[in-house]
Amino acid sequence: VIVRKDDARFANVTPTSVKDLEGYTVGTGSGYLAETLMKADSKINVKSYAGNIAFSDLVQKKVDAFFLDFPIAAYYILGTGPGATPIPQLKLLGSPIYPDNYYVGFNKSNPNAMKLLPEINQAFAVLKKNGTLKQIYVKWQLWNSQQASIGVM
Predict the structure, then answer these.
(1) Which end of the chain has fewer CB atoms < 10 Å from its terminal CB, N or C?
(2) Among 92, 112, 135, which residue terminates a domain?
(3) CB-CB neighbours of 13 under 10 Å
(4) Is 45 strand, coil or helix?
(5) Is the pTM of this model over 0.90?
(6) Which of 52, 67, 92 is the last residue of a domain?
């Protein structure tokens, strides 16, 4: 969850579930899992963004918060990663509240897609087991304690 640093409403708040966003206008990416999770709760006013996420809307107080995948938030808010520039008016609030698995998209019309699935899962399992996945996440400052429990699909 991303909020403005100067927003007193979030000064002593550490969200632990999507329910903690009730009563707020919260931005996210169109088609993101966060959008689905929030739209399931009628007490959250969801503002979905297609394409580029408009963090300027949060800075300009057009939304109260953003709920996004941690790597995306870390890149744009903390400025981690190549070419990233932090947004000094914003901050990450607490730990990720909805850890999820790693996913790779496939074109379902490709006859080889289902053949690739077990191979991709095996590759993720190997990268996780031999520590490579953690090394990559540490390098880009994305590793957190929840990463160790994330599985593959």
Answers:
(1) C
(2) 92
(3) 14
(4) strand
(5) no
(6) 92
Predicted confidence band of residue 88 (pLDDT cuts 50, 70, 90):
very high
Q: What are 95-125's pLDDT values in tens digits?
A: 778 776 667 788 888 888 888 888 888 888 8
- Provide the residue range defining the domain that includes 74: 2-92
Question: Tokens 């300027």 sit at which residue?
Answer: 56
Q: Which long-range contacts (CB under 8 A, 24 or more apart) does 43-50 make?
A: 44/18
Place of tokens 């999507």: 18
Question: What's the token pair of residue 141?
Answer: 């400052």
> Are the C-beta atoms of 107 and 33 separated by less than 8 Å?
no
3-state SS, residue 5: coil
Note whether 85 and 136 are same-domain residues: no
Environment class of 118 (CB within 10 Å of its CB; exposed 0-12, middle 13-18, buried 19+): exposed
Say if residue 80 is in the same domain as residue 120: no
Tally the domains of the chain.
2
DSSP codes of every residue in 54-96: -HHHHHTTSSSEE---HHHHIIIII--STT----TTEEE-SS-
CA distance linking residue 104 with residue 17, whole number of Å: 25
